[in-house]
Give the backbone structure.
Amino acid sequence: MTANTTKTTMTSKTTKATVRTGTTKASARRSDSADARGGARSYHQFCAVARGLDVIGERWTLLIVRDLLTGPKRYTDLLAGLPGIGTNLLANRLRELEEEHIVQRRVLPPPAASTVYELTEIGRGLEPVLMALGRWGHRLLDAPRDGEFLSANAYLVAMRAAFQHSAATDISQTYELHIGSQVFEVSVGNGRCTTREGQPAAADAIFTLDVKTLSELLQGELTPAAARKARRVQAEGDPNALETFTSIFALRLS
């Protein structure tokens, strides 16, 4: 083997190793730095689960990913949807997620021209992880405790996990949900569903309600008829849409 061939082979191996470990370099730097301060942030195990937790195992990280699953968010939107996180901690978590290529920043076109955070392809790959964790965690839920925050984003993500595919094979509808200051689109078709924050181009039904009412409807604690009678929900469009909506998104995640 010639010297040039040897050099080329070594370069190729180095390049492959760099690509393979590229997404963990930032976490390794953060772990080394934290270890030096006495606060280990790596499990130091050659294990896919441990390596994944090195990246997403910090407090609040998965909740940030959860909220971004419904679409891009401004910094202030994320802060409002995660009460208790604190502005400095949110900034740190977003920076770490950017370093790991899980989240990226983008400037919206005029007239908005706002900077938003959104999931990358790697970040969107965490959706089935969140769905599985939500199904597992649902069995631990009882009634909301005093002071616990009800997140509209959390329910819109939970609806994906709860979606009753078999009950929706013949349904093709788009719902527009107004929950507080947020507007969401929920689309159902061909036995599939999508949920995102934003106003749909056209909707078969429009629901205006608060998060607590949405929770009770999906949990089966409140019927659509009772919600309408108590004026806890304002429904426009298809008169049967609320019954259909609650039946195909009922939160039975066992």
Q: What stands out?
A: The chain has twelve helices and eight strands.
